[in-house]
Amino acid sequence: MFCYQAYKVNIYSDFSLPELLKGGSGEDVYIQKGKVKPPILETTSIQRQGIEVLFGGSTQEAYLRWQGIATLLAKDGTTLIVDPDSDNIEPQLLNLYILSEALGIILYQRGLFLLHASAIKIGEQVVIFAGPPGAGKSTTAAAFAQCGYTVLADDMVAISLDNAGKVMVYPAFPQIKIWPSAVKGLGYNPSSLPPLFSGSRKRVIRQKENFPVEPFPLAHIFFLEDGANLKFTKMAKNEAFFSLARFFPLPSDLLQGTALERHFQQCVQLTGKVDIWKVENPKNFEALKKLVRWVERELGEDTAKDKVFCSIS
């Protein structure tokens, strides 16, 4: 058995998960290999590697099925049972599915608010970049990493909101997935970045050294959308609410009854606690430099100005 940590939980696993940090303190989650017999499953709008996930069950006993990969059962925020379709599935590929929506459901069962987004630690604060697929979340995160900042989460951000009003972001694990065009545009050496899995075009940036395990306060949320020119606009609370509700990264069938109420309440809390922005993003690398510098100035952080990528003429 292997022991890891992510999202401030200790994870015991029957599977080797080298993407994660080695074990630490915190409450426990067990990822075990076993047989899963799901109920009737329904289609969803979520795809990974071109495969649509099927979903069934309830909030506390949720089933996911990726055809040709595995069936998974997330129970009570403590147990994730993985039933691979074959013993010959490449471990890196299987891990991609274990550490995405499946682990996300475990976190959701533990009461965390989840957002389809990337999170970057700047100083002692965190900023989040959310948006639809292709909006540039991972490329933006990689740009901040190139400037020396720590990317706490690349695909799914976990946020806690306590009764005292604190909004904290939990570090996931040190992995950023980027396309070859971003590798080239950001100046990374392609030969130094491994593929996400065998045959994948995506490359992976892993910066495990000094990766934090404790949560940090959330300062800003930025929603990325296409635009002709880089522009930041602070969102009204009602607009921010609908954007937060929209980018839930798990099957929408989880949001029913009291679960939907809780989700909406958390969205309302967030709109009152942090600044939420719309970013019109032309998605070119010059604009990306300016985006990094704007966020640095907004947070009073200027530690990266002497670095080549971050310097703005």
List keywords for this structure.
313 residues; Rossmann fold; globular
The amount of helix comes to 10-25%
Q: Tally the beta strands.
A: 19
CATH topology heading of the largest domain: Rossmann fold
Overall geometric form:
globular
Please give the alpha-carbon distance between the first and last residues.
52 Å
Mean pLDDT: 91
| Rg calculated over all Cα atoms | 19 Å
Low-confidence stretches: 303-309
Give the SSE layout.
Layout (H helix, E strand, L loop, with lengths): L1 E5 L2 E5 L7 E2 L4 E7 L8 E7 L2 E7 L3 E6 L3 E6 L3 E6 L6 H19 L3 E10 L2 E6 L6 H10 L3 E4 L2 E6 L5 E4 L5 E3 L1 H7 L16 E3 L10 E11 L4 E4 L2 H10 L11 H16 L1 E7 L3 H14 L15
Parallel strand pairs: 2-4, 4-9, 11-17, 17-19
Antiparallel strand pairs: 1-2, 1-3, 5-6, 6-7, 7-8, 8-9, 10-11, 10-12, 10-13, 13-14, 14-17, 15-16, 18-19
Description:
This protein is of the alpha+beta class and 313 residues long. The protein folds into two domains: 2-109, no CATH class; 113-298, 3-Layer(aba) Sandwich (Rossmann fold). Helices cover 24% and strands 35% of the residues. The protein has six helices and 19 strands. The protein has helices at 91-109, 137-146, 180-186, 237-246, 258-273, 285-298, and strands at residues 2-6, 9-13, 21-22, 27-33, 42-48, 51-57, 61-66, 70-75, 79-84, 113-122, 125-130, 150-153, 156-161, 167-170, 176-178, 203-205, 216-226, 231-234, 275-281. A hairpin with a 3-residue loop joins strand 6 and strand 7. Helix 4 (237-246) packs across helix 5. The protein is globular and about 50 Å long.
